[in-house]
Amino acid sequence: MTIDALRRVGVVGYRRCRDAGCGVAAKILARDLNKAYSTRGAPIQAIRDFDLEVQEGEFLCLVGPSGCGKSTFLRIVAGLVPSSSGEVRIVPGPSNGGKPLNSIVFQEYAIFPWKTVRQNVAFGLEMRGVPKRERDEVADRWLVKVGLRKFADAFPRQLSGGMKQRVSIARAFANDPEVLLMDEPLGALDAQTRVVLQQELLRLWEEDKKTVLYVTHSLDEAVLLGDRVVLMTAHPGTHKASYRIDFPRPRALELTATPEFARTTFTIWNSLQEEVARAMEMQA
Ligand SMILES: Nc1ncnc2c1ncn2[C@@H]1O[C@H](COP(=O)(O)OP(=O)(O)O)[C@@H](O)[C@H]1O
Ligand SMILES: [Mg+2]
Questions:
Q1: Residue 106 domain-assigned (yes or no)
Q2: Same domain assignment for residues 193 and 253
Q3: Does 119 share its domain with 158?
């Protein structure tokens, strides 16, 4: 849909919404979630009474000031870190067929330096015992999609940061998980590469609309990519506000140049900035 058409149908860009959906088709569920890290001193309460539901097929962006517990939450959902109390789960689909529940993409380039690009992309499949021929085929298909076909036999050291992150993203998609968890996957990239990869992510996601939980500190990125943007408060992280982003899809970079887009990010920023200020006071 072009931006003119968008104006004709009167899209404003966002709606403030009550928490987290209606629970009808919740794919990721968190209820009264608490996490305290034990340290040698007092425990650090990273997340307090946090509630969130991500609907099946939803692209949900989680935003909050640095240190508010975004990564902690994502790691709890992924099963990498235990919670202290509360409930969190990924609801498996009826026809799961042995699919992994989640794949995670980290900000830092978490790919194996001793494996080729193809072997990295095929890693999740290899872990699940998929035969070599089949997993190489799947990996190559994803390498085409992320523009790395010619680098299938290269090693990570031969790649730029943006290319390495494409490998991580291709690996996550190739694993065909029920949900994709992404922790600032474009956060370490330069601004230009970031814009290109945002477009690629949109394109890949729009092909099969997986459930995505996406952490970012960039509101522009959250509004461009997300169906919903959820704000967390400053440390300890709780649920602050939720905004439904109703820009039509497929979305393109053009959207970011519209007043509707600016108004949406500005409105959300107004709510977020108090938390950023609070987080900075705590650090001072
Ligand atoms: N392994 C850990 N041990 C102790 N404290 C931690 C650990 N990981 C994170 N924290 C603390 O928990 C809080 C939330 O951290 P994190 O989830 O990384 O926040 P975010 O991703 O939003 O920046 C911070 O105060 C951080 O210092
Ligand atoms: Mg983090």
A1: no
A2: yes
A3: yes
**208 and 276 housed in the same domain:** yes
Q: What is the pLDDT along the chain (284 residues), one digit of tens a residue?
A: 566 666 665 556 777 776 555 556 899 999 999 999 998 889 999 999 999 999 999 999 999 999 999 999 999 999 999 999 999 999 998 888 888 889 999 888 789 999 999 999 999 999 999 999 999 999 999 999 999 999 999 999 999 999 999 999 999 999 999 999 999 999 988 899 899 999 999 999 999 899 999 999 899 999 999 999 999 999 899 999 999 999 999 999 999 999 999 999 999 999 999 999 999 998 87
Full domain range(s) for residue 137: 113-176
Running DSSP on this structure, what letter comes out for residue 50? E
For ligand 1, whether the C-beta of 198 sits within 6 Å is no
Match 């050291």 to its residue by tokens. 157
| Residue the block writes with tokens 């968190």 | 30
For ligand 1, atom 6, name the residue with the nearest CA.
37
Residues 161 and 187 placed together within one structural domain of the fold:
no
Q: CA–CA distance from 257 to each of 34, 61, 128, 198, 221 (Å)? A: 39, 20, 43, 15, 13
Q: Which two tokens stand for residue 250?
A: 């497929």
Residue 198 lies in a domain: yes
CB 135 less than 6 A from any atom of ligand 1 = no
Residues 139 and 205 both lie in one domain: no
Instruction: Report the number of distinct structural domains present in the chain.
Output: 2
Which residue has tokens 């010619």? 150
Task: Of 211, 163, 212, give the one whose Cα is nearest residue 183.
Answer: 212
Pocket test for ligand 1, best of 33, 35, 37, 50 (most atoms within 8 A of CB): 37
